[in-house]
Amino acid sequence: MTVPIAIIGAGIAGLSAAQALQAAGQTVHIFDKGRGSGGRMASKPSDAGALDLGAQYFTARDRHFVEQVRQWFDQKTVEAWKPQLYNYRDGVLTPSPDEQIRWVGVPRMSAITRGMLGDLDVSFGCRITEVFRGQEYWHLQDAEGCSHGPFSRVVIAVPAPQATPLLAAAPKLAGIAAGVQMEPTWAVALGFAEPLNTQMQGCFVQNSPLDWLAQNRSKPGRDKRLDTWVLHATSHWSRQHIDLPKDQVIDQLWGEFAELIGCVVPAPTFSVAHRWLYARPAGNHEWGSLADPDQGVYACGDWCLSGRVEGAWLSGLHAAKRLLSHFD
Ligand code: FAD
Ligand code: NAI
């Protein structure tokens, strides 16, 4: 019997690792606490259609990732998004066009990880609380008290603060993960019955509680019924307002948006807020992935490379390659 490899996390890092391991002939089983795949690349179903409240778009600079994006493009799970970009600084809004290609999942961001699932074995709604070693193999304990296993190796593909307790059996890796601080982001989506009178479809914001705005429905394949906008607060503002009730977060960020956008902004007919506790690593690391080959424990995710979609995908691949290189 082949003893499978456990992967904790069905975000893009975990799925990238899973695909690479499966392609090399390994059997994997993935666990995720969420109801679906994608993690911070998931899209939220709502009365205003699916909304990208986490990752907004991604760029591809590494040649391996460029090749992967080309395959997704051929499979019709991604398209280029070409927004009218603006920049807002110190009260001044200026057009800020550029040549950068920005990719989005179609018809929603989560289409990418949904497509990556293929025939992989995944248990959703399963929060892993402990990773422990039996005599020979690894076992996982979940929040319901069920145990899963045996597994020959374990790949932990969750944000650093959530990885730390799961890495208890590999204290060196746990120490590294514990040293990674991750910053929060408050995200708000607003929907307007009448389109706002602006050319803007995306905006980088400086010196404001807001960090980024995007017209969600300007992305390819999105629901067009309402004029939907996604607002992201800065890490600083999000940290300072971490426990603010959602309705107040919506009110405050809507106010900032109305001031910034330079046109009349009526009360939204739809609004939703989401708090990402571990949105992005506070600093950049170039580890690729973390490995304790003697124990057979690996960790990956955006916090091991760049805090971006591309970095997360590359980190999963890095972990898989390291694991395969250590196979007897
Ligand atoms: P995650 O996506 O966090 O996946 C981890 C998975 O592990 C999750 O599905 C989670 O449910 C699961 N999990 C966690 N703990 C457990 C457990 N104990 N047991 C089981 N499952 C568990 N990047 C860009 O490139 N461009 C952008 O525009 C951009 N914008 C962003 C905006 C926001 C608001 C946020 C939050 C992120 C943004 N990012 C962006 C970053 C990008 O989303 C991440 O870098 C990337 O999605 C991280 O992928 P990951 O697989 O490493 O982690
Ligand atoms: P990118 O190249 O579009 O943007 C990188 C940065 O360059 C931007 O943050 C912005 O400051 C600047 N920039 C780029 N184009 C600009 C333009 N036309 N006008 C003005 N400024 C411009 O994309 P990349 O490198 O893939 O970065 C991903 C994006 O995801 C970044 O904006 C980053 O802030 C965001 N992100 C947000 C997170 C969150 O929690 N809110 C987490 C991780 C990433």
TrEMBL record:
<dbReference type="GO" id="GO:0051287">
    <property type="term" value="F:NAD binding"/>
</dbReference>
<keyword id="KW-0274">FAD</keyword>
<feature type="domain" description="Amine oxidase">
    <location>
        <begin position="109"/>
        <end position="324"/>
    </location>
</feature>
<dbReference type="Pfam" id="PF13450">
    <property type="entry name" value="NAD_binding_8"/>
</dbReference>
<comment type="function">
    <text>Catalyzes the oxidation of the 1,2-dihydro- and 1,6-dihydro- isomeric forms of beta-NAD(P) back to beta-NAD(P)+. May serve to protect primary metabolism dehydrogenases from inhibition by the 1,2-dihydro- and 1,6-dihydro-beta-NAD(P) isomers.</text>
</comment>
<protein>
    <recommendedName>
        <fullName>Renalase</fullName>
        <ecNumber>1.6.3.5</ecNumber>
    </recommendedName>
</protein>
<keyword id="KW-0521">NADP</keyword>
<dbReference type="InterPro" id="IPR002937">
    <property type="entry name" value="Amino_oxidase"/>
</dbReference>
<keyword id="KW-0520">NAD</keyword>
<dbReference type="GO" id="GO:0050661">
    <property type="term" value="F:NADP binding"/>
</dbReference>
<feature type="binding site">
    <location>
        <position position="185"/>
    </location>
    <ligand>
        <name>substrate</name>
    </ligand>
</feature>
<feature type="binding site">
    <location>
        <position position="13"/>
    </location>
    <ligand>
        <name>FAD</name>
    </ligand>
</feature>
<feature type="binding site">
    <location>
        <position position="308"/>
    </location>
    <ligand>
        <name>substrate</name>
    </ligand>
</feature>
<comment type="similarity">
    <text>Belongs to the bacterial renalase family.</text>
</comment>
<keyword id="KW-0560">Oxidoreductase</keyword>
<feature type="binding site">
    <location>
        <begin position="32"/>
        <end position="33"/>
    </location>
    <ligand>
        <name>FAD</name>
    </ligand>
</feature>
<feature type="binding site">
    <location>
        <position position="128"/>
    </location>
    <ligand>
        <name>FAD</name>
    </ligand>
</feature>
<dbReference type="GO" id="GO:0050664">
    <property type="term" value="F:oxidoreductase activity, acting on NAD(P)H, oxygen as acceptor"/>
</dbReference>
<feature type="binding site">
    <location>
        <position position="309"/>
    </location>
    <ligand>
        <name>FAD</name>
    </ligand>
</feature>
<dbReference type="InterPro" id="IPR036188">
    <property type="entry name" value="FAD/NAD-bd_sf"/>
</dbReference>
<feature type="binding site">
    <location>
        <position position="40"/>
    </location>
    <ligand>
        <name>FAD</name>
    </ligand>
</feature>
<keyword id="KW-0547">Nucleotide-binding</keyword>
<feature type="binding site">
    <location>
        <begin position="56"/>
        <end position="57"/>
    </location>
    <ligand>
        <name>FAD</name>
    </ligand>
</feature>
<keyword id="KW-0285">Flavoprotein</keyword>
<feature type="binding site">
    <location>
        <begin position="57"/>
        <end position="61"/>
    </location>
    <ligand>
        <name>substrate</name>
    </ligand>
</feature>
<feature type="binding site">
    <location>
        <begin position="96"/>
        <end position="98"/>
    </location>
    <ligand>
        <name>substrate</name>
    </ligand>
</feature>
<feature type="binding site">
    <location>
        <position position="302"/>
    </location>
    <ligand>
        <name>FAD</name>
    </ligand>
</feature>
<dbReference type="GO" id="GO:0050660">
    <property type="term" value="F:flavin adenine dinucleotide binding"/>
</dbReference>
<dbReference type="Pfam" id="PF01593">
    <property type="entry name" value="Amino_oxidase"/>
</dbReference>
<dbReference type="InterPro" id="IPR034721">
    <property type="entry name" value="Bac_renal"/>
</dbReference>
